[in-house]
Structure formats: structure tokens, C-alpha cells
From TrEMBL:
One of its GO terms (cellular component) is mitochondrial inner membrane. Its cofactor is a monovalent cation. One of its GO terms (biological process) is one-carbon metabolic process. InterPro entries: Folylpolyglutamate_synth, Folylpolyglutamate_synth_CS, Folylpolyglutamate_synth_euk, Mur-like_cat_sf, Mur_ligase_C_dom_sf. This is Folylpolyglutamate synthase. A monovalent cation. GO terms for molecular function: ATP binding; metal ion binding; tetrahydrofolylpolyglutamate synthase activity. Mg(2+) binds at S97, E163, H191. Its EC number is 6.3.2.17.
Amino acid sequence: MSARSYTDSISDLNSLQSNAATINALRASGKMNQNAIGEMRDWVAKAGVAQSDIDELKVIHIAGTKGKGSTAAMVASILSNYRLAYGKTPRIGLYTSPHLKSVRERIQIDGEPLPKEEWTEYFYDVWDTLDKHGSAKPVYFRFLTILAFHAFRQECVDVVVLECGVGGEHDSTNIISEPVVSGITSLGIDHVHVLGRTIEEIAWHKAGIFKKDCPAFTVEQGEKAMDVLRTRAQAIGVSSFEVIPVTPALSSVKLGLNGDFQRSNASLAIALANEYLKTQGVDENLSVRLPEEFITGLEQVKWPGRCERRQIDNVEWCLDGGHTSESLALTGEWYGSIPESVNRHYLIFNQQSRDSTALLQDLHDSLPNHSEFRKVIFCTNKTYQVSGYSSELTSINNASDAVDALDVQRALARKWHDMTDQEAIVVTSIEEALNVVRDDCGRHASRCLVTGSLHLVGGVMTVLDDKQT
């Protein structure tokens, strides 16, 4: 067989995406696959990854609706500043989703995406081993999760910060048996077709990552969600269950991530990182002070596309991948809190798979100056006007004919007009949306809010970076 390239691996990986018909059937069923964990264990075995190898990984497992990726990034950043009892900085694996520009972002080691050469080698280790068992392959996220476990073992990481994909109970990451600690970030309504339409149902799924005799943490939640988390923690038999309030010491820390809500995520990250450090002989007394390593980690953390501000020429691009009712309300608050220093404001928005008009309403209601956007643009998540999706942003999760019809974007434009009396612009691609802003703002100091979807934000980042090279 001829040598296969990184590009080949992306093409093969994209072939594992579930198409729109499959996803719609899953949504119509109203529940997740109850056999998911058993099936995932079978795939792991067929891929040649021993369950014992996975169980030997020291895992910090994180679930939640909002902020689980940010929390995971903060935990990894904190730990990267420590030298453990045996004199070396821990080698840290980080597994998150989705990616923004490159799929390699999902599997990071020591703060860097897995290099292309190693990615390709480990990808085909798993791919070729699965081929020996027939032509079938696990779906996209399952394959990536297996690949992550394989890469972390091959790279001899000391600790893995593992973010759930969807839910917790039936999530592909939940094949681990004994995490160092489990943490749940803020809960809200999302993925209702598979997790349920009530906060109690969603909390039940998220608490599925709790494990017997292992500690479990969560941030402050609403009463209904907290009752479910406590009940499940007791039923599962965790060693301890602790609610983490916002740490007062954070008032003097300038977090690397924007948004006041990140202080709750940072507080949980502190607790999770400290729990791992205890297993390594590092016992910090956090009630006395916040150690310098924690402060440095929290100040230096990077997590692109979440309340991120990027200045390019005369335009400040404000990027946030908020895509739930609660997160978009926070997006609006964050955007409104940025000091006024520009002449022109713009909005680029898309949400292709959820209740997009309701989410637009949530954003609108949270924006103090929502009527002051000079132009509002609704686009698809297609990256480029002519060539379509960037190869690493290809998606078949939504039917191509429905995307091409621009029905979602036109509905969003009608909704915006109903709310504001302002005509909005509908375009077919992210590249076109950015061109509308650039052409209109000229040399005026301008600011553009991009939100509604992490896929949209990743596409915008891709096009912006193209224009700078």
C-alpha cells in the first residue's frame, strides 16, 4: 500500500460522519442509544486498544452544557505549570470537541494539537486494525475518541483532561472506569432530542460520568438540576460530592478567557486540578491562598472562539460560539460590556441545527444596543463562496439541499426584521459574510460580533487567517 497522507486521513475521517437522514432518525427516536457504552467497548477492542490501557490513564472527566471546554482548557493550563514530586512537568493530554479550524485541535498534548505526522500514524494504526475486522467503522466521534485514547497511550501522557461529547451516561468518553475526578459545569437545555426536554433529564445524563468511589464536583446549579446530581451521586456511590462556589481569590486574577461567567468555570478547574495534584503528592491548601502555578495557568489559558476579540486592521472581530439559550444570553452581555470605541457595529449569525429563530431572540434580548448594528448578515457554515467547505470543516450532518436553499437564513432574516424593523442580508457562505463587513466598513473603526455556532466561528477564523497569509 502506498504511503497515506494527512489529507487522506481527513478524507477517511469525514467518511465516518453521520448524514442528515441518520441524525434526523436519531432525533425522531427521542433517546440516545442505550447500548452505546457496550458498543463503544466492542469498537475499542476491535481497534486494538486494551480497556486496561484506558483504565491506567489518569483521567479528569468533564461534562456539562456550558463551559466544559473552557474548564478543560483551564485544568490543562494549570497543570502545565506544575513540576511534580518526581521533578518533571506532567505530560498532559486534552480531548475536546468540536474543533474550530483543524480536527487535530481535538487531541492535544502539552497544549499543542497532535502534529500531522503523528496524527496520520496513529490514525492509520486504528483504521487498519479495524479493517481486519471487516469494512464497518465506528461513527466519527467514536473513532476520534478511540484515536485519542490510542494517541495518549503512545505518547505516554501522565494525565488526560477528557471532555464529554454529548450528555455523559451514554457518551463515547464514558468507557473509563475510574477517573481521578469527575466535574460537571453549568447545566442548561440543549440536545433535547437525545437528552430530554427538562433540566432534570439533562442533569441525569450528565451525572452519568460519576463513578463509584471517585470524587465528583459541580458548580452551583438550579435547585432541580442539583437535586438530580445529588441523588445520582449517592446512588452511584461516589467517594465525595462537592459543590464548588466561585473562588473569592479569583477577584484579583485576570483570566485568560473573557466573560465574568468564566469565574465559575475557573473555580471548578481549580478544584479538579487540585484533586489530581493530590494523587501526585502535591497538596495545596487552597483555603489559604491560590498558588502561583494556578494563577499563571488561569492567566495564560487560551481557548479560541469563546468570547475572543481579534483585531485585524480596522475591524475588531468578536467571536463566540454560543449556541444555547443561556450561552447566547451571556454572549450578548459580554458583547455589550466591551467599551465603546468604534463607529460601526455588525452581526454575523448562524445556527443550522437547533431552534435558530428562538436563539436569535435570546441573543437580541441580551444585547443592550441590538438596534445599532449597521448591517446584520445571516450565512450558512460553508467556508468559501466557490469551493464550499474547508476540508476539515466539511459537514454532512445537515442535508446539502436544505443548506443550499437558505431556508434557515431567510427565516432568521424575517425574525430579525420582526424584532427590529431592520432588513438583514442573507448570503451563502462565511467568506461572503466577511466581505459584506469589510466592504461596508471601509476604513472606519468597526466591530463585528460572530456567534450562534462554533462551526460558524471556526469558519470565520479560517477565512480571516487565509486573508492574513
